[in-house]
Fold:
Amino acid sequence: MPTVLRIDGLRVVIYPNDHRPAHAHVIGQKGEAVFILHCPDGPPELRESYRFSRPEVGRIRSALAMELATLCDEWRKIHGHY
Structure:
């Protein structure tokens, strides 16, 4: 499970055997969320969240948006097309 980014103690993971559309799993001790990236222009969109509060999800979404180019590049390296 390749961690492609870290955000405030959270791991952002793109699984090599995962499916389209391009998305990232955000994993922390408190929970997990999955965001569809909408590469290459975004914005990231919450697909599902387990045990993250709404404010936490908002902060995660903002952080992912700031790193969107990197995340889309990592998805492309692992999976090819978005």
